[in-house]
Amino acid sequence: MRIAVLLSAGRHPVSGKPTLPRTEAQAIRMAAGLGAATGLHVGPDAFPAEAALGHGLDYAAHIACAAGSDPVGPLAARIVSDAPDIVLAGRRGQGGDETGLVPYAVAARLGVPIVPDAVAMRPATDGLVEIDQALPKGVLRRLVVRTPVVVTVHPAAPPPLPFAFGKARRGSIERIAAAPTDLAAGAPPPEERPYRKRPKMMRAAGGSAADRLKAVTGEATAGGAKVLDHQTPEDAAKEVLAFLRRVGVLAPASAAGPGRRPAASEDASRHATS
Amino acid sequence: MTRLRRDPRTERAAARTSGAERPRYDLALKAAPSRRPRRDPRAEAAAQRVPAAARLRLDRSQFGAATVVATHVPERQTDKASPKPIIVENPDFLVLVVPDMAGGRLGEHDRQLFGAARELAGKTGATLALVGASSADLGPAGADRVAVVARDPDAYDPDARAAEVVAAMRALDPKHVLFPESADGGDLARRVSVLTGEPLFTEAEQVSASALGRPARCRKVEQRSVPTRLISVAADSVASYSGAPREARNEQVDLASGPAKTAGAIVSATRIPADPATVPLALADFVVSAGNGVTDLDMFRQVVAALGATPGASRVLCDAGLMPRAAQVGASGTVLGASCYFALGIAGAPQHLQGVADCEHIVAVNTDLHAAMIARAGLGIIQDAQLVMPAILEELERERRETGT
Ligand SMILES: Cc1cc2nc3c(=O)[nH]c(=O)nc-3n(C[C@H](O)[C@H](O)[C@H](O)COP(=O)(O)OP(=O)(O)OC[C@H]3O[C@@H](n4cnc5c(N)ncnc54)[C@H](O)[C@@H]3O)c2cc1C
Ligand SMILES: Nc1ncnc2c1ncn2[C@@H]1O[C@H](COP(=O)(O)O)[C@@H](O)[C@H]1O
């Protein structure tokens, strides 16, 4: 299986120094478990391609183009000529506009499907790949998808391999000059101002301090409490289990619960007659 | 006795006679009374008095209960009793809202999305919710119109959903389309953006009719723009709609004009529930937690495993080294996102309750009827946790025996 990893020019959130975004380093690790991977970066600076070699790639292509130009066209052109089975990208960029639109635009340009938020991938039978997608609350969605496919990587994927200097020296970078594209292709750049942190939204802005405490501990929404006093532990246990089942966090007693008991006895009688 | 509050300035202004060069006042004239209500401390104290107490006790949380309201302040109780839905008959424009509605219910993020949509719609526009199944919550959440699209709630076909939204956009020509910036909502927004070729304003943190704002460059700058057509709204940054309920009128939308359906590349999709034993506490859906009232922790771990839950603990147990620090629930531990919380022998200190503020269902077992945890719980059981835990194991074992044979 052949894989292309899209590498963007990230910035460290604190120091502002150029770094490879973490999700893209995770994508490199994920690609290493699948087959031969190459890196692909479009931009004025070769740094992301060099960093990717240190994180585990043997080979990366750097398509040089002017700062601020749209990377989608050159990326799509290169991917069409390489024809990889899987294109891996980060979920969002880091240090730029951070819109996460580039992988979607590339997929649309190539006319291939896109699967977001992968945390694991395994090759399945011919032309298929199994992808585990991260959903909220630790739930996974396991998809079987036909290749070629564009996949974005979720931060919950396995951590990236550490940067190895020797590996970065041994790998090779191919430098390509992109056909010049018109700079102001998209919408005009939005107005920017320094970021101002705003207070977190509160559930309910109460009047008094007691109200605000109730809002923050959830007492304001609590209500309709059922309190059971003077019960034997056995009855209490039954009540608790019934409540948990009603809420839906505990599986029902069993598929063959009290309601299915006749079926079980029917089974037994059949065994007895045969 | 109610006396109206005097406002000397208005009295003087009213008594001023016009026409004179110097200010002159006709003090025989009476000024209109001020509209500010005068407080009556005696009546307030009487209302705060706790009835059955031997000594004088005042319940200060009843603040302002007996504040005397001037008679001419209109009472709003009549429209509270029967809230009439607000109807926008002929809207100037539509704001299309595409909520996630995981499990067919409106989540907190979805409500905030409607808050943003109402902000953009203002008085003359209408919000239209594009949902898979209608819900009674949509009107109070701020939906003027509801369009129900028949679709299989369990199927995963994001391309089909994007095509649906594009078709609705072609049929209705909305001024704005709003998506939640969640796992599935953010994905859908980007798909619609590339399908229509229109720019998407992602992760908007400020939404108003005049401007949108979003963080960029690792939250170093804030990008602002006039409201674009496609917007995805970040979680917990826009207030949900709090006005009177909206009409939520059903509307038929013709979705035939959508883009042509392509052959699905997704061969199969299965949901794999999180493993409760390994999922991080913050992500767990069902947490069973032990406090200082639990002495037999081996038994506690058995109960947690038998219920298929994630273990938690109060700070007392973590400080004592009886439970790992990662299991601590509360302000200085983990704030839970669980839907159900089962507290065994926990008093419910405010620092602990902060960690379970978002939990919808709470069960508490405590020997103390007056524990704060019991007051917070949906089901409170006054019993010794050491006796209830083996009883739960016994009950589950009995069920297994009965169904096993
Ligand atoms: C800055 C700060 C931060 C804090 N952060 C946290 C935090 O993040 N998380 C946290 O949990 N705490 C936190 N605390 C501590 C918190 O204030 C309480 O001290 C703590 O939560 C109490 O834990 P507990 O309810 O288990 O113990 P206790 O207060 O000792 O309560 C034990 C409860 O168990 C009941 N009980 C006793 N025996 C039995 C029995 N046999 N069966 C059933 N019930 C029984 C008792 O009636 C009592 O209600 C913080 C405190 C501070 C000052
Ligand atoms: N100039 C680029 N060259 C290669 N890949 C890119 C480039 N810009 C973005 N990407 C990929 O697209 C993902 C999302 O980026 P963005 O849309 O900028 O948030 C990144 O994590 C990269 O994998």
Automatic annotation (TrEMBL), chain A:
Keywords: Electron transport, Transport. Residues 263-274 have a biased composition (Basic and acidic residues). Residues 252-262 have a biased composition (Low complexity). Residues 252-274 are annotated as: Disordered. InterPro entries: ETF_a/b_N, Rossmann-like_a/b/a_fold. Gene3D superfamilies: HUPs. Coiled coil: none annotated. Residues 24-180 form the Electron transfer flavoprotein alpha/beta-subunit N-terminal domain. This is Electron transfer flavoprotein subunit beta.
Automatic annotation (TrEMBL), chain B:
It comes from the Bacteria. InterPro entries: DHS-like_NAD/FAD-binding_dom (IPR029035), ETF_a/b_N (IPR014730), ETF_a/FixB (IPR001308), ETF_asu_C (IPR014731), Rossmann-like_a/b/a_fold (IPR014729). The keyword Lipid biosynthesis does not apply. Residues 1-27 have a biased composition (Basic and acidic residues). It holds the Pfam family ETF_alpha. Keywords: Electron transport, Transport. Residues 1-50 are annotated as: Disordered. The keyword Heme does not apply. Residues 95-272 form the Electron transfer flavoprotein alpha/beta-subunit N-terminal domain. Belongs to the ETF alpha-subunit/FixB family. This is Electron transfer flavoprotein subunit alpha/FixB family protein.
